[in-house]
Structures are given as C-alpha cells and as structure tokens.
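pasting input
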Amino acid sequence: MRDEILGKVRESLGRRSGTVPPSIPPTARVPPRKAGDAETEVAQLLTEIGKLSGVTRRLANRDELRVAVAELINVENVKKATLWTTPDLVGWDVAGMLRSLGVEIIPPQADKRLVAACELGVTGVDAALPETGTLLLRSSPERPRIVSLVPRVHLAILTPAALRPDLHEAFADTKEAGYSVLVTGPSRTADIELTLTLGVHGPKSLYAWVLDES
Amino acid sequence: MAIRAQLFVTCLAEQFFPNVLKGMVALLERLGVEAVFPEAQTCCGQPFFNSGYRTQARELALKWLDVFGKTDGFIVSPSGSCVDMVRHHFPELFRPGSADHKRAVEIGARTVEFTQFLVNQLKVTDVGARFPGKVTYHASCHLLRGLGAREEPKALLRGVDGVELIPLPGEDTCCGFGGVFSVIYPEVSQSMMKAKVQAIDSTGADVVVACDAGCIMNIAGGLRKAGSPVRAMHLIEVLTAGRGAS
Amino acid sequence: MSHQPTSIDFRANVQQVPSTMPPAVQKATTKFLGNRAALVDALGNDFWQQLRQAGHEVRLHAITHLDYYLEQAERQVIQAGGHVHWARDAEEAQRVVIDIARTHRAKLAVKSKSMATEEIGLNHAMEAAGIRVLETDLGEYIVQLKGMGPAHIVVPAFHLSKEEIADLFREKLGIEAPAEAEKLTQIARMKLREEFLAADLGISGGNFLVAETGTIVTVTNEGNGRMCCTVPPVHVAVVGIDKVVPDWESLTVLLKLLARSATGQKLSCYTQFISGPPRTDAETGPKEFHLILLDNGRTRILQSPETRETLLCIRCGACLNICPVYNHVGGYAYGYPISGPTGVMFASQILGSKAAGALPFASTLCGACNDICPVKIPITEILLHLRRRVVEGDDLEGAAAPYSLRVGAQIGAVALGTPWLYRVGSRMLKRLQVPFVQEGWMANLPGPLSRWTMARPFPAFAADFRRWWRRRSDRT
C-alpha cells in the first residue's frame, strides 16, 4: 500500500526516490511581525483576549494574585480544581492558595471523570501572541493537556516574559515539544443560525492574567 | 498621425447589438482614430473553449488569427470576455514554441477591450458625451477579473455630462449568464439573474450599464421579464447617445 | 452522503433545493466574507497578497515534492512513537480504522470534523461493523442526528433553524429542548461530554501534516477536536496525503491565511499540534496514536499537471462563500461532502468524469474564487481543463460526454467559422424569427432554446452592421 502510493506519487511527478527537494524559495516566506515595546505588547495581548470574551487582569505581585484567585473562586463557584505543576505555578503556590479557600485539588492524572468534575483548570503559558490574543500551551509531565481542556473555567497565568512577537518565534521554542495548542479565546461555535455561543466542548470561560512579578 | 483600430466586433454584438458597433465606429472616428473592419471575421470560439471543445476552439482561433494576422496595430473590441479569450486562452490552444503559439501571443498583445483602449491608449476619459440620468454600472466578470478593467469603464461614465452614477450593490457579482451555463443550468442562471435585477432595482437608477453583450442580453431580458422600466445599455450607447452614428 | 456517489445530476439536485436554502446560505457567506474583508483590510492588501503568494508557493513546493515529505513525516511520526498506515482507497482506510477499533474492542468512537472521513464514508463502514460513531462538532452532530451530510465545510448545519434543531433534539435525544442557540449548545455540550469520557476511540482528520516533525495540525473552535485527540485512550487521524506541509515556517504562512479566509478570525480558537502519542503518562492524553495517510484518488489528481494544483487547497471554504452558484444552491446540490468550487475540482477528479462530469459545468467561470483563494489556485483554469476532459477526453480519461455532442460542436464550429455560412445563417435567422418576435424580443422559444426563455426573453437577431459598414465605405 505504502510503496504503491509513493510509487504513483513519484511517477506523476517524475521524481526518483530519495531525491532531496531544492530549498524552499524566499517568496514562500513572510517576515514576522515586529514587536512594539513591552508595555504596548502586553496591552495589545490583553485587548485582543478581551475582544474574544476572555477575561484579563494585570497583577503586580503575589498578594494581588491571591486576591484575584479568591474573587475568581467566588464568581465561578469553584469547588474543585486541577493544575499544571510548572515551576512558576509551584513557586507562586497557586495550589496552596486554592486549598486555603476550600477548593479541592484533583491531580490531572486522576480518573478523567474526576478531572472532568473540576470547575477550574489552572495553567501557565509557554508563549503569548499579542497580535491575535493567543496563548500557546505545550504538553509535558508538568503541563498535562487535560487541565486546559476539560474544566469549565481555564485560568492561564503568565508573565510578560512569555510574550513573543509572532508565531515564528513561538514555534521555534515549541515545535519539538510533541504536543502544543494555540488557545485563542474561550471555546465557541456559530453552528446554530450563525449565532455565536461560547463554551461548546472546551472551556466556557478563559481568564488570562499577566503577573508582573517574576 | 492617426491611430488605426481594427474592429473585432464579436458574434454576439454583431447579431444582437449592431447599434453598439455603429456607435463604437462613430466614437472612435470622433476621437481621431481610423476604424477598419476586417470583414472575414466571425467568432473567436469562446463558447467552444468554455464548453471544453478545444479542438473546435483551436480551429476558430486559427481562423481568427489568420484574419487579424493580416492587420497591424490595435485590435479593438466592445467585449471583455472575447478579448480575454484571445489574450489569455488562445495561447493555451497551441504548443508553446510553435509558430501558432507565437502568433497568438503577438496578436493577443495588441488586442484591447474598448474602454481600456480609450482610457489607457488614447488617454481619454471625457469623450464629450451627454446623458442626463441615474446610471448604475455592472462589472462584467471577464472584463473585471480577466482583463483587470475595474476603473476604465467607470472613469468613462464619470466623464459623461449629466450622469449621476449610483453604486450597484454586488457590482462585482456575476449576473448568471456564463455563456453555455445559462442553458445548461437554467434554474441557477435564472436565480442569479433575478438577484442582479433586484440589486439594480434597489438603486433607483434609470439605466444599468455594462460592457459585455452576454451580460446585457441576460440583464435586459431579466429586466423586461420583471416588468422593470430600467434600461440595460452598453457603455458605448451612453457615450454616443443623442449623437447617433454617421 | 457518506458513500461515494455513482452519478451526480447537478441540475436535478438544484431542482430539489428548497427556497429556504439560498437566503440561509447567503446569510452565512455574507457574514464570513465581511469578517474576512475586515481582517484583510487590517493587514493591508499588499501584505495579504504577499501572504497568498507565499501560501501558494509552500503548498506547490510540498505537492511537487510530495514523496519526500510524506516519507519524512512518516519517519518522524514513527520516531515519536506513533503508527503510520497507508490507505490507497476508501475501503482500505475503513479497514485500518476498524481493525484498530477491533484490536481495542472499541464500541464507541468520537469524531471531530474531517472532510477526509466523510469522503471515505467512514461512519457508515464503522456502524456496519458494530461500532458506534459520534460526530462531535456541533454542526456535524446536528446533521448526523438528521441523517444528512454537511451543507458547508465550515458550518455544516447553517441551513437549519433553531426551531428545527430543537425539534431534532427532542425527537432524537428525548430532551425538552428550547429553541435558543445558547441552550441547544449547552445540551449538546452535556450530552457529548458523557460520550467523550466514555469513548474508546477518538478519530480526527488533520488540516495539515508538518513533515519536519511529523506533526498533524487541527484547526477548530469548539474544543471537540482537542477532546477527541486527548480524552479517549486511542487516537486515529485520517489525513489526505495532500495535506503535507514541509516545515513550521511554511505552516506559519498557512495559519495566517486559513482562519482569516474561512471565517474571518485571526486564528481559530484551538490550533492543535500533535506529533505522535504523549511521551509520558503524566501529560495525560491517548496511549496510542495512529496516522492513516489517505490516497483515494489524490495520486490520480497529481498525474495531471494542468489540474494538479487542486491539491493546494487548504479547505478554508472561502471559494464557497464567494461563489455565486454556491450562494444560490447550497452544498447539497453538489452531491459530495465538499461543495462549491473546490468541491467541484475534487469530486470531478476523485469520482471521475462519468460520475461527476456535470460538476465542472456548474460554474459561470466568473473567477471570484480565483481572487479569494488564499493559496492562489487557478480554479477556473482547472475547471476549463476538467470540462475538456469531460467532452473530449484527455491523457487521463476518455470523453464521458456522448459523441453526438462533439459532432454537434463540429457542426457549430463550421457554421460559425465559415464566413459565408455565418453571414447567410445570420440573415436566415432574422427571417425565421419573425413570427416569434414582439417588440424586439422572443418570449417563448421551442426545444432546447426554451432553457433560455424559461427565465427571460431572447433578443431578436438584428445583424446589419456589415451592410451599414459597406454603405459607409461605398460613400467615402
């Protein structure tokens, strides 16, 4: 099956097996977007996420983070949460903050039905793209895929260091990762009479917080 | 030194809109152009090409090239689709490198649609015409996309004294003629034509102007069927209204 | 619509189109086109054209070196711990999926939207093998409940009203469903959530396959694509061999073009990049990843240099949105899961001229599709070649149209091409038409000409330019 298909391809194209293609022409490349200064970039990121009905905040330090987490738990009525275990999140002790608010922490590797019962999933961000309001999340043992997917609310906490000018730079860091996802706003559809509704199968709410303290 | 224009009249214009051709001659002469009519011409073969009959299209293309190959200078036509056929599709009918291919490319290069001839070659947008009334413009597909003639017809219309040019919603949208399409899929053609008629109606214009005989046949027929008082005219008729043909 | 049609009668299909369809289509397409135009404006037309040219070149480069990139992709996926299968046709692909399902004793599969799987009739085949297959894209879920295929490649159920969808949910799901988009969506979310969690197998397509790292890319909005690829223990991706992209730089160009062209979004909600199964259990995700590389006629399309650029298509749907024919008939008239101009190109070539010869003529050749295609496929040029294939035949296929038509064309060409016949014919028609003409028009013509006059009158033959010209010339 394989050889037949490849054989037909080669025959149609007049190519011999193993011939390396010429390099891709320069007109097949486009220059990446040029980034503005750091402040403008962060502002643009938050504006774009807001346009997609994401909820954004700028937080100066861990104390403000703690307060913001408490508000979120209240507003979204969170009883159970699941989290990434990246150094950032562990360093800020987001799990500790949640526990102190009475939220039960479910490990992402638990039975998927248990994880699905969590209202909140908390992640960091591997890259953020201001032009489109996009967050790039890759997959690793500390970054389980299910955390940003299954709960009703996705909270992504990032620092300005995560910002990248464009997809080119973001991909350079993550293309070898094995899995990554670009998240651009909360889940949506216009399948019914073209009416936009949020929260189809992925998270219904996306919170993106930029924490200035490194 | 007078420019000469060989007239490529096109089969549809010849059969159904002879006044457009007479007007074209009068207008060219008024602009100091000598009009010449190679009488052996018939049809460029576009209907055959568009229907997939390249064998027949090639025969007609060779005949066309024979006729116009005996001329020199500009070949001018009041139909965008026919000029598109000659310039872009004739070469596809012949093997690259062959004498016929070379001929097709050379002669095609001097074949020009009427509005593009006036605006781009003669550098004229005001021909001294007068046509008081509300006019809307339909952009024929091959003229627009095949030849890139987006501005030339409108520039000429704006140069007409008394014309109030009203934009047509969906100006760029196909009217549903499509040559053989109109008889292969009549229901779809009719649906598209009706939408075009509705758009024209909505402008409140007295006249809809186009630069292609096929579109005009379709739209004029549609307007008549709908009982609309709007007239469908070729741009040349607007440019020569009231002056007649000598 | 889930199995290969043997003959597509476009005109008959058009005659079945309900009057509610064109306005519904136009509502959807107007919205997408408007959103797209705003984003193209924001980028600036010069940059957009530069992007289109780059998109064309990366796709052309990939297609014209396809064997190399397919082998590279295969190596990378295997190195990443995935399985690669090659399927020459629909039956082979179905068998591979069913075998995988049987190995894992799968009873329930969840599926994200994939034109390739529609093309091969996968759902039917799996149901016949006793495996329940559930479409999870909301629009696909709805049309699946209704027992139909998609009416548009991006918004499959756009033509159904919310009342119809509420009735459908009531009837098929036994749920009291109010006719409100938000509530209907929540019902689907809840229902499908259970299914995602219970599913044994997740099936997806792939918008792109990046050879550099063996990565499949899925472009979605709802999250069902991520669910299908993450939650069930086994993930199977069915990807046409034409989806190959050489590297991530090339992919970047295409990602900038795709969502903008499809729906007027800068990026879709979720663009997922999957290279094999997860490397560790701690990441969560499927235990096994299978990539099925599907031919099903694509190598045949490759054979013909004049039509090969069909394979550049990135399935954005912009050509559907701008096509005036599509806007007046909707997707079902084309009789194939992919409709509109790109559907015509694919169906004609995958099914062949005998089955789909009606389709290349389902176009006025207006060319709006050429201008909007993000990868600059010369669509109308390809349609012209396909028309020639139908009536004359070419290197790939014999003529499908009856020989009598060619005889007719020859007669017509002689009549039109011979000057004296042309002139005599013109004079004759002016005489013959007299009983039919009123005020310069003929309202009802007989026979095949009635196809014109059923819609509008035909103008009277009026040729007198040559006589006028001769008189003028004689005078001077």
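fyi Chains B and A do not touch (no CB pair under 8 Å).
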